[in-house]
Amino acid sequence: MNNLQLLSRQQPGQVSIDNFQELKAALTNALARYQGVVYTDSMLAEAKADKKELSRLRTDIRNRRLEIKKAYLAPYEEFDAQVKELLAMVDAPLDEIKSFVSKMEDREKEAKRQEIEAYFLRKSSPLGALARQVLNSPAFFDAKWLNKSTTAKTWQAAVDEKIYKAAWDLDSIQATAGRHIEAVTAKYLETLSTEDLAAYRCQLSAVSGPEVFAAPVSRDHRAGVLTVRLTGGVEELAQAVEMLSMLGVDCEVLEDDRPQPMPERTVPDFNSFVCFDLETSGTYGAANGDAPAEITEIGAVRVVNGEITETFSQLVNPGRKILPRIVRITHITDEMVADQPGPEEAIRRFAEFAGDSVLVGHNIKQSDLHYIDTAARRAGIRLENAFFDTCRFARTLRDAQGWKSLKLEYLSEAFGIAQPDAHRAWCDAQANALLYEKLRELAAR
User: Fold this and answer.
1) Helix extents (H) in 355-401
2) Is residue 423 flagged as an active site residue?
3) If you write DSSP's letter for every residue of 235-258 in order, what string do you get?
4) pTM over the 0.90 mark
């Protein structure tokens, strides 16, 4: 093995062993003598000699590798050193310019931040004395507002929404937090979210003891159900339900006794109908000086003998701004509806499409029918179609099916119904038509 020599060739981008196959064959023959050898105590000298010989061979091969590697890298290392020298020449003035540009951009961002804060303070009257605390909340300022690509219209709309949402939430806290108002308000200001406030208030009550009210306290600790009749507009009722939730009360709307323009069908015993859905602009509520919500889209499908045969899709100009949070959910913008018909003309077109068919929808008795009836009255027409609410019917099957929610998205997922564009009226109407058929099958079992 002393005659083995590794011969290599190197050129840019390539290094090879010219006699690789010859070396491999020679090593195979030379190392064959070690295969199957079992060393015994009496063969210690031979084992040491073999170890020395193989170690020497391995060192020779390794050293040759390092030698070739160093020779191969030497030109690159020289080239790399020269390039670094050139880069250093460029970096000297570049770093100074970068520093200047960074300072100017920081000034621009600070100026924009001050502009946003000034706008907030001008619009913050709904927040009263808590305006500064809302402004200083870690959850208030969105760093994206400082981007050059974020227009004044965009960040102003976002600030408006945060102001009115915080005003709504703080009013709810004032009305429901009792003796824990200060603590619950402080907790809210950390995140500007009411999501965990009910649980937080329960923790406070557990530490400080239950609140004492003037009304008699029942000693019956069994869980009970209390049915309360609430009277008010759509937004007022929504706020009342939110307040109950903050109190830790598990509430569910069982009945809506507001006058309905159409007769209700409660059994899914028909297989031809028109399934529809609405999207609306949203509203900050009359208490915050905002106008009522208006329709922004009507979507519908006609079902004949269980098959979808025709579709209806109409964007609607609500005659008011669409709330930013609604835009994020539906992706319907003010620009998209600017040239579309108003609610009155849209409802006429929908009424013509619907004819005298049964109208099917999800949670329509609680919300959609109100908007349909309001727009129809303004248009001088009246829809007298029978309607069927899949949400109300699904509630009758909820316990038996073990459903955790009655929302359209949840039930669609439970039945494997695709919603490629959820929260668009046409997509939700199509999904709801398929949901009706699934509910009808369950009812027939």
Assistant:
1) 369-379, 390-401
2) yes
3) HHHHHHHHHHHHTT---------S
4) no
